[in-house]
Amino acid sequence: MEEKVIKLRQAVEEASPLIHNITNVVVTNFTANGLYAIGASPVMANAREEVGEMASISQGLVLNIGTLNETQVESMYLAGKSANENNVPVVLDPVGAGATTYRTETARNLLNEINVTLIRGNAGEISNLINEKVDMKGVDSKQELTDAVVVAGKAAREFGTFVALTGKTDVVTDGERTYYIKNGSPRLTKVTGTGCLLSSVTSAFLAVGEDDPLEAVASAIAYYGIAAEVAAEKARDFGIGHFQPFFFNELETLDHEEIKQRLSCREEEI
Ligand code: ATP
Ligand code: TZP
Ligand code: MG
Ligand code: MG
């Protein structure tokens, strides 16, 4: 697995996939810069007049409902349909699903209409999508799950997608094969947009990992978590404001030895 993470990370740099993000107003700049850090090319495009065309020339489409409104949701449908017609993988980040009915319903409707490759969300978001109520505090999950793999597996089977349920331990599953990833840093929970950027980073890895897309998702999450671990160590004498630039530096130049030594990823068949 270490070699796969390194190989896919290099492939992202070489191919520099164009990732089309229809995302929220909080994380737009953070996401674009994080994608540049790993060597991908970001584009943010929202207008219904252009999203179909933009999705068709991209290698990945990310739909993120963090600050949704009717106009943006209409654009998500248009972009999603175009991505499906052009075999462009779609990642859905159901930000705040469960916090309001509008968010839950919109995420479910998108999943019904669009062929989504991966849903990437926190414990509360994924649980609420499958109607298992977990309290949300706005966009944050109020609890870790003891049965994350059961919830993720159920969501994967119900929606026919891969699911990445992230938190202290990340679970990546297609409903049959599951990866458990324990890399990461609690500091990621203190910077807004780290979940959203992760969704876009998985899209970049999916763009270059067609031979085993589930493994590509797990690799993206492991890479991201290890980058955060190293950044947290380097920034340990500083406050949270310093963690962000250290983290972006590691996303860009993470040492392969760190990947080999720190990777904590286990694969299981259900
Ligand atoms: P939330 O809004 O609940 O924070 P999110 O959408 O930001 O959710 P997270 O689940 O926080 O997404 O995942 C973002 C990244 O942070 C992932 O790489 C995950 O592994 C990491 N992460 C989250 N919580 C922890 C933790 N307690 N320890 C280590 N890493 C964590
Ligand atoms: N409010 C609406 S979207 C958003 C906030 C704070 C960003 C959420 O980012 P993440 O990556 O889910 O923490
Ligand atoms: Mg978070
Ligand atoms: Mg989130």
From TrEMBL:
<dbReference type="GO" id="GO:0008902">
    <property type="term" value="F:hydroxymethylpyrimidine kinase activity"/>
</dbReference>
<keyword id="KW-0067">ATP-binding</keyword>
<dbReference type="GO" id="GO:0005829">
    <property type="term" value="C:cytosol"/>
</dbReference>
<dbReference type="GO" id="GO:0004417">
    <property type="term" value="F:hydroxyethylthiazole kinase activity"/>
</dbReference>
<dbReference type="GO" id="GO:0000287">
    <property type="term" value="F:magnesium ion binding"/>
</dbReference>
<feature type="binding site">
    <location>
        <position position="166"/>
    </location>
    <ligand>
        <name>ATP</name>
    </ligand>
</feature>
<dbReference type="InterPro" id="IPR029056">
    <property type="entry name" value="Ribokinase-like"/>
</dbReference>
<comment type="pathway">
    <text>Cofactor biosynthesis; thiamine diphosphate biosynthesis; 4-methyl-5-(2-phosphoethyl)-thiazole from 5-(2-hydroxyethyl)-4-methylthiazole: step 1/1.</text>
</comment>
<keyword id="KW-0808">Transferase</keyword>
<keyword id="KW-0479">Metal-binding</keyword>
<keyword id="KW-0460">Magnesium</keyword>
<dbReference type="GO" id="GO:0009228">
    <property type="term" value="P:thiamine biosynthetic process"/>
</dbReference>
<dbReference type="GO" id="GO:0008972">
    <property type="term" value="F:phosphomethylpyrimidine kinase activity"/>
</dbReference>
<feature type="binding site">
    <location>
        <position position="120"/>
    </location>
    <ligand>
        <name>ATP</name>
    </ligand>
</feature>
<keyword id="KW-0784">Thiamine biosynthesis</keyword>
<dbReference type="InterPro" id="IPR000417">
    <property type="entry name" value="Hyethyz_kinase"/>
</dbReference>
<dbReference type="GO" id="GO:0005524">
    <property type="term" value="F:ATP binding"/>
</dbReference>
<comment type="similarity">
    <text>Belongs to the Thz kinase family.</text>
</comment>
<keyword id="KW-0418">Kinase</keyword>
<comment type="function">
    <text>Catalyzes the phosphorylation of the hydroxyl group of 4-methyl-5-beta-hydroxyethylthiazole (THZ).</text>
</comment>
<feature type="binding site">
    <location>
        <position position="44"/>
    </location>
    <ligand>
        <name>substrate</name>
    </ligand>
</feature>
<protein>
    <recommendedName>
        <fullName>Hydroxyethylthiazole kinase</fullName>
        <ecNumber>2.7.1.50</ecNumber>
    </recommendedName>
</protein>
<dbReference type="GO" id="GO:0009229">
    <property type="term" value="P:thiamine diphosphate biosynthetic process"/>
</dbReference>
<keyword id="KW-0547">Nucleotide-binding</keyword>
<feature type="binding site">
    <location>
        <position position="193"/>
    </location>
    <ligand>
        <name>substrate</name>
    </ligand>
</feature>
<dbReference type="Pfam" id="PF02110">
    <property type="entry name" value="HK"/>
</dbReference>
